[in-house]
Design a protein that fits this description.
Layout: H1 9-23, H2 29-45, H3 51-66, E1 70-74, H4 76-93, E2 96-99, H5 106-118, E3 132-133, E4 143-144, H6 146-150, E5 154-158, H7 162-170, E6 174-178, H8 185-189, E7 192-194, H9 198-212, H10 217-226, H11 229-240
Parallel strand pairs: 1-2, 1-5, 5-6, 6-7
Antiparallel strand pairs: 3-4
Helix pairs in contact: 1-2, 1-4, 3-9, 3-10, 3-11, 4-5, 4-9
This protein binds adenosine-5'-triphosphate.
Length: 242
């Protein structure tokens, strides 16, 4: 039981959620460690959404609304921490959801599918239909759904690894990352990087999508044109002060 006034309460609750997901077979061993890396960066950014991240969230909303075929890529950590927000965002955007795992097993993919369905997602790609391959990647990491990531023009990749992010960019997809580490390869390779904690960033992204939904395309394009990911990452780096 975590006391209400514990200074790390939110962080500890997230940890509990992740461990629960681990026990249910959604999260891999490596996923627990990756979360620890995220926690360290969240501590440094002050465990709140900073201004540069807000700019990235706005650009991400514009990019997702402009996309013809957007897809949200979901791994074990994302499913365990934020299945409901993923379901809500997908509904708002009318976009697809695909399970894409670094350490893929069919059992884990199936469990994640079940968990997403319980959160209200009707169709989950990438479980039984991962027949296409991302070029330049090897082993299980390269498997994707033709209907999903393979043909997508814009992919939201919360908590992705650098190789796969780079491969998606090379395939010509507009790539939006959510990653607490502004120095990671994913953060530097993606077109838009939201340097914020996943469960804080997704509700803000949903709000931004709702706000921008009725704006015309020219307005959305002008948001993207003004957006500079390098600058935003540099601003985040300065906030952390290294
Ligand atoms: P790269 O290959 O991009 O350089 P990496 O090897 O550091 O990245 P992984 O070990 O795959 O990446 O870790 C996942 C990344 O996700 C880390 O950069 C970590 O900061 C980030 N991360 C972990 N948990 C969260 C979270 N809850 N919200 C946002 N980012 C997170």
């Amino acid at each position: 039981m975590i006391p209400e006034n514990h200074p790390r309460r939110k962080s500890l609750l997230l940890r509990e959620r992740l461990i629960e997901g681990y026990k249910r077979g959604l999260v891999s061993d490596e996923g627990l460690i990756a979360h620890g890396r995220g926690e360290a960066f969240d501590y440094l950014i002050g465990e709140r959404t900073r201004e540069p991240a807000k700019k990235a969230i706005k650009a991400a909303a514009a990019a997702l609304l402009l996309a013809k075929n957007p897809v949200i890529s979901v791994n074990g950590n994302v499913a365990a921490l934020a299945a409901e927000s993923v379901a809500e965002l997908a509904k708002e955007l009318n976009c697809k959801i695909e399970v894409n795992l670094f350490y893929r097993t069919e059992d884990r993919a199936g469990r994640i599918e079940g968990h997403l369905r319980n959160a209200g997602v009707e169709k989950v790609l990438g479980v039984k239909d991962a027949y296409a391959r991302i070029p330049e990647l090897f082993s299980e990491r390269r498997k994707v759904s033709v209907e999903g990531i393979y043909l997508a023009d814009c992919v939201l990749i919360p908590l992705e690894d650098g190789d796969r992010c780079e491969a998606l960019v090379k395939m010509g997809k507009r790539t939006i990352a959510i990653d607490l580490n502004p120095l990671s390869r994913t953060a530097r390779k993606a077109h838009i990087t939201i340097v914020d904690e996943l469960t804080r960033a997704l509700p803000l992204l949903i709000e931004e999508v709702k706000k921008l939904r009725y704006k015309d395309k020219a307005h959305l394009k002008s948001i993207l044109k003004k957006y500079n990911n390098k600058k935003v990452l540099e601003e985040m780096r300065k906030l952390i002060n290294f």
